[in-house]
Design the sequence.
């Protein structure tokens, strides 16, 4: 069973449709015609040390994907803000990780917009 993490904490699964699953090393150009019309993409993270999924999410958003984008697999609470800034809407983790890193740890990173260094650089003093 999986746990879905959002800015509101641990949530139940709400997506009833199909997911278009992508590996972190996929070439967007190679799947561009396949994702046309897709409303939900799940990017797999094989290890928490593999950051290619963050780059893929940012590329998908820059390419115009506006649907639901989920990071799934080995993403840890410390990476939640990065996942949101990269373009992910939510993170899917397994129950074992949710036990090791309870909801409070994820919620402590939910203010990712307020703590974005880019936002601070745009402010005028």
Sequence:
């Amino acid at each position: 069973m999986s746990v879905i993490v959002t800015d509101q904490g641990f949530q139940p699964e709400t997506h009833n449709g199909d997911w278009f699953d992508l590996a972190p090393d996929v070439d967007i150009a190679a799947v561009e015609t396949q994702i046309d019309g897709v409303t939900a993409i799940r990017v797999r993270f094989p290890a928490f040390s593999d950051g290619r999924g963050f780059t893929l999410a940012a590329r998908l958003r820059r390419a115009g994907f506006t649907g639901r984008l989920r990071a799934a697999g080995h993403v840890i609470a410390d990476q939640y803000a990065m996942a949101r800034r990269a373009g992910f809407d939510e993170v899917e983790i397994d129950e074992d990780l949710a036990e090791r890193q309870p909801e409070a740890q994820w919620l402590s990173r939910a203010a990712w917009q307020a703590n974005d260094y880019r936002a601070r650089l745009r402010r005028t003093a």
Remarks:
- The longest strand covers residues 40-45.
